[in-house]
Every structure is written in structure tokens, then in C-alpha cells.
Amino acid sequence: MTSLHTTPAWILRRPPTCTIGATSSARSFVQLLDPHRAPQVGGQRMTHVFHHISVMRDDVVALFRDVPSGVVIDGTLGGGGHAGALLAARDDVAVLGVDRDASARFAASEHLKSFGDRVHIVAGTFGELTEIVTSAAEWIAGRPIVGVLLDLGVSSPQLDDPERGFSFRHEAVLDMRMDASSGETAAQLIERIDVLELRDELRQNGEGRFATAIARSLKASLPSTTSELVAAVESAVPPSARRRGHVAARTFQALRILVNRENDELRDALPAASAVLTVGGVMVILSYHSGEDRVTKEFFANQATGGCSCPPALGCVCGALPRFRVLRNSAVLPGEAEVNSNPRARSARLRAAWKVRA
Ligand SMILES: C[S@@+](CC[C@H](N)C(=O)[O-])C[C@H]1O[C@@H](n2cnc3c(N)ncnc32)[C@H](O)[C@@H]1O
Question: Among the atoms of ligand 1, which is closest to the Cα of residue 99?
Fold first, then answer.
């Protein structure tokens, strides 16, 4: 495991608003909610408690240490863990926080309220980055965009909320939408798409040689709950072929990626982020599966050459100029201490690149 730090600097401080939720059980986490501070929005319970440990937090903050003064866009605000650490470390930086999940925005607004108008929280997806920056122009007030942070995937509260259908660990309706107010649920999606498309999507998003059998089983059984989805996967994968971990884990992940159009979101966001960043600004992407890390790596490689595809042996003759300087070719991984204390950090891969030319 490698880290940006020579000494492990993982001081896993929970944000102050998380103290009453400092429990490992999702059920007791829900029971501890203060009903006066936990309104419902679109059928989803809002809570100021957001028990998520920000991954590689100190590494992320270190990467923003030398950017010019201005605005950092946190496109995956979650509970505001990374944003809060960044705001505390740089008092000349403001954060435009984006999240598609209403409960995350609610939690972040509570967690970050001491930073006042240095924080502006917007509902939306990071795939719409250009439109979000345009609509926040009044708050941005001409300041340069000096950073973009994407900490991809789902948060712990999303996974642990027994009602949202993200996890095989809880019996729930098969929903999986990060924005519970719009779009198709996983159950509706399985019903709509044809078996070949489902197979290809499962394969592309992590399911291995049983993608065809699982797709057929899902189309035959049309699961509407998490336990029905598990049963459909179990009937498609023989016990002798099951790998370590839960047999349905990859299917859950693949469906979640599909329901939330996660690959398209990232592909749309990277060029938009590169365009809005000022020279000297940094883009930091934390991925949790190989597909999204590959997209980031290829995008950064292209920006680092300015799109040059001249044969390396000849040297560049096309005149393309690098637009970004990449932190390094391989991804940075969390240190062992972090993985031990936060198992959800295990699959994290961090990439960063600085804009060097407009
Ligand atoms: C891993 S969590 C981020 C945690 C956050 N960095 C922290 O330290 O608290 C990912 C968050 O991004 C949000 N998200 C995922 N994809 C998104 C997208 N395309 N647009 C906006 N928000 C997204 C999820 O709803 C979730 O709240």
C-alpha cells in the first residue's frame, strides 16, 4: 500500500455532528434521530447524522494545499467530511458542494454551517458540472475554480440505510437510486431492459463469467426486493464457483452503477471539470472500482499529452501541448492503517492532476 505521506497521518476524527450517531448499527442510528431535526423529503428521511468516514482525507486535503485562492467544487459532497477538512485547512477557499442525494445535502449543510457563506450547496449531479457552475455564478462572484473533487460511489449511510435497497445486508425494496426523487429504480430497470443489454452491463460493471446466467435469472424472476435479487443470483451461480465475499455483491454494485448512470456521469464530468478549472487548479478523483479508475486514468493521460498520439519513438510532431500535469501514472492507495480502521477504504484509488495550460 502506498500513501502520499511518509508517516501515516490517519487521525480518524468524526465530524462533531456525528457524535450521537457513533454506532455501528444502522438500526440504532435511525432510532437515535431527533424527530424535530429529521424531516422527510420525497419519502426520504433527512438526518443531520451522517456516519461516513472520509477516505484518504488527509491526502485529499494535502493535494489542495497549494492551489490558488478561490472555489473548490466538491461534486460528491456526501456529509461534507472532505469539504469540512478542506475549508478548515484553507481559509481562502470556498466550497461549491454538489450531491444528488437530499439526505446527504441535509447532513452536509448541518456539518458545514459554521463555515457560513464559504459553502454553497447545490442539488444536482456532477455530470451537469457546467450547468451547475453557470447557475451558481452569483455565489461564485468571479472567483476562479481552483479545484474539483470527486469521491465516487455511495456513502456509508446510503449503503447502511435499510430502506434504500443498496445492500444485500438489508431486506428492502429494490430501489438503489441516490436521488430517491427521480429516475428508475433497480427493479424497474431490470424489468425494462432486455437480457442481452443486462448481461453486457453486468459484465462491464464487474460481474464475471456468470453475467449471462445472472441476467437470465433476473429477467425470469424480476426481483422487487433485495432478498429476491440475492435469490436470483444464487440460483445462477453454482456454489462451487462462488468467490470470496457475498455471491451477489458484484451484481448489487453493477445494478447500482447502472441505475445511477455512474459511468456516464464520470465521462461527462471529467472534460467539464477540466474546462472550468483555472490554471494551477487541481482535479482529485477517488474511485472504488477498476472501471471508473480506468476512465480517470485514460482521461488524465490524454490531458497530460494534450491529446497527442504521435508514436513515442518519433517524438511529438503534431504540436499538441499538455494541459495537465498528472500526480503520477499509478493510482495512490490508502495506507494500511486506514484500511484496517475503515474497511470501505480498501478499494480506493486516488488520482490527481494539476492544470498547467488553459
Ligand atoms: C463517497 S460519498 C462522498 C463522501 C464525502 N466525500 C465525505 O467526505 O463525506 C459519495 C457521495 O456522492 C454522491 N454522488 C454520487 N454520484 C453522484 C453524482 N453523479 N452527482 C452528484 N452526487 C453524486 C452520493 O450521493 C454520495 O453522497
Answer: 22
* Angle CA 187–190–195, to nearest 5: 165
| Smallest CA separation from ligand 1 atom 13, residue | 76
Ligand 1 atom with minimal separation from the 85 CA: 8
Query: Which residue owns the Cα nearest ligand 1 atom 12?
Result: 76
> For residue 295, what are the contacts with CB-CB under 8 A and spacing of at least 6?
263, 266, 267, 270
To the question of pTM greater than 0.85 for the whole model, the response is yes
Torsional class of 106: left (φ above 0), alpha (ψ -120 to 50), beta (otherwise): alpha
Per-residue pLDDT 10s for the chain (358 aa) are: 333 432 222 222 222 222 212 222 222 222 223 333 344 555 565 555 678 899 999 999 999 999 999 999 999 999 999 999 999 999 999 999 999 999 999 999 999 999 999 999 999 999 999 999 999 999 999 999 999 999 999 999 999 888 899 999 999 999 999 999 999 999 999 999 999 999 999 999 877 789 999 999 999 999 999 999 999 999 999 888 788 889 999 999 999 999 999 999 999 999 999 999 999 999 999 999 999 999 999 999 999 999 998 998 888 899 999 999 999 889 999 999 999 999 999 999 999 999 999 9
| Measured distance CA(5)–CA(183) in Å, rounded | 41
How far is 35 from 54, CA to CA, in rounded Å? 26
Within 6 A (CB) of ligand 1 lie 52, 54, 75-76, 78-82, 98-101, 104, 125-127, 151, 153-155, 178, 265
Domain spans of the chain? 16-157+263-355, 181-259
Domain 181-259: CATH superfamily, name plus number = Putative methyltransferase TM0872, insert domain (1.10.150.170)
CATH code of the region 16-157+263-355: 3.40.50.150
